[in-house]
Records
---
Amino acid sequence: MRISSKLPHVGTTIFTVMSKLAQECGAINLSQGFPDFPIDSRLIDLVDKAMRAGYNQYAPMPGLPALREAIAAKVQRLYGFNYDPDTEVTVTAGGTQAIFTALGAVVHPGDEVIIIDPAYDCYAPTVELFGGRPVHVRLGADMKFDAGAVKEAITPRTRMLMINTPHNPAGTILRDADMLQIADMLRGTDILLLSDEVYEHLVFDGEPHASAINYSELRDRAFVIFSFGKVFHATGWKMGYAMAPKAMMAEFRKVHQFNVFSANTPMQHALAAYMQEPANYEQVSAFYQAKRDRFAAGMRGSRFKLLSCEGSYFQTADYSAISDEGDRAFAERVAREHGVASIPLSPFYKDPPPGLRLLRFCFAKQDATLDAAIEKLCRI
């Protein structure tokens, strides 16, 4: 039987490829974005407590009320805006599911969605699955937001703009001036915004997180996506949430109920309790900034040139002083011959820039893991 693929150009993700290669070669895995250290034992205890208390069946479709209330309270505390937990907050099975659901709720065949490259690899295929057309715009110099290029990409068919801050893979952030430019270019249009903010608590050097929630003109047209896994070092739990105005969230839930229906119940109970202590998420930035600084200090002895890392737990590095190889070939060789796995940046682009010589390293690792990787990378 012949099957006509809806995604004929899509293969296995680069994350799977490089993690598999790391395992095969016994390489230190700085490729896929997950920590190699344990999560807070108190959070594990809360999950165990919820399971033993019998909270093992379906949660309400939008999420456990106590968790939605805790999320709304956190957002009010951080950003000063009150989302209605009953109608404007939905708990999801991770950030990627939230992105998929948001796009599925509002993208119609023929709609254009502006994606800023390099972009997380789920964006464009999801747009295509729902019949939309991804319109790719590159970040500007030094991986910074290029408002002019985005504005030029807007057409009468533009349905949505997708932004990501802190940015994966670049590690840069959007600032107040960028958000104001986005508000200005969307003003007077029906263009929606998807703001991927899964690394909201990983912003460094005292910079504030410029959430779309802070800007009323953006908030009123935005799906804002967050991740518990990134913040609490539990990526395998696949827990996240989405926030949006009531009318938009109603459309989101129409898709969500047939996609996953509800996220993991005992983990929702645990997270609702864990979030009662703001320090549990407020300390994350300093924790990861120390890891960024440790990795950067060690890499000064290498021939890699590190780009600015303003947020996330990814460090982008230029290897043009080492090799003229394409980034995928170089990344594979470094894993095989030098024992460190990374992610090449070209898969994050529709059309990679000529001469792209960048790798992404994940520093969400134990100090011993980082030190061992640094030692190997400095020998290249």
---
Amino acid sequence: MVKNFSFLLKKRDGKARRGEIQTSRGSIQTPAFMPVGTAGTVKAMMPSSVKDTGAEILLGNTYHLMLRPTAERIKDLGGLHKFMNWDKPILTDSGGFQVMSLTKLRKLTEKGVTFKSHIDGSNHLVTPERSIQIQTMLGSDIVMCFDECTPYPSDEKTSLDSMRLSMRWAARSKKEFGIDPKRALFGIQQGGINKDQRTESADYLESLGFDGYAIGGLAVGEGQELMFRVLDYAPNLLPENKPRYLMGVGKPDDIVGAVTRGVDMFDCVLPSRSGRTGQAFTHRGVVNIKNARHMNDPRPLDSSCKCPCCLNYSRAYLNHVFKANEIISSMLLTWHNLHYYQNLMLKIRDSIEQQKFNLFKESFFETLNKGILSLFEFILFN
């Protein structure tokens, strides 16, 4: 029997939430991290390998897929799941963030956004309706409303106008999406760093009624301290019985801090992008594998990690293949990073279930800070 989309909030520990999302393609345990499959692939990874890290959902990028190979072609070939050989849920972003990033190549109006392709310079118009149509052709399980990602910094009027445009687009997105119990449509809260604006945005989205709610317009340059200040209130403005998704975040300490404040879902390119640039996440901080001090180091990246990279390869080997520009370097470091992220989410979920999230958080930051201090001492005295 194909299940309808639903969200069950199982347990709380302070503001931290432990839940489960049901979709027609399987369940997602929350808090959850979604690896980013920008163009129909998580770079340097096979879909089966991504699954082996513990990932239960991927993010697909509407902007990139609509330009190449096009949503129409993917639909004709059986949809994005079949196209990329991924049988678990997929969330597609609306394309709004990427389009808004093309400042010099796009024109924003009430109707939508006209822009030039970064690939071949061809002209395109994306409206809320067109974004939903593209995501429907892709066949994603969770669809995002088309929005304008408010730039940072912005003055109060610019932020307000941007938020209200996104709310009008949210209404048009919902109308275009219609009713589909097996798929979900998420609204996106905007309002920059202004509490009154985020309150207005959340109230309007709730009046429209969505299957889940995203917190947009953060991780755009405001810094962690200001982001956390917004997250101290923003998630609480959203419905308690729906999943809350913080878009584009982030670093491990960002995730732990956001879970503390009531967020359920995350995505970020950081684990895969960092893997390709020689950076590995460990329980004691980030290891830069291209550093010369790893050349003769027989230890694994992280002695507490059970991923194939840490079980089978030394830091010395990883240093060598990175410097030799071998493809296996990106594969192993990305695999390790994604495994680290999924293991982090598992530990977070377990600690909330056991009502020990604060203990986990204290231990996480204590170990992380010790690792940073050790690295500082090494640099200082060697």
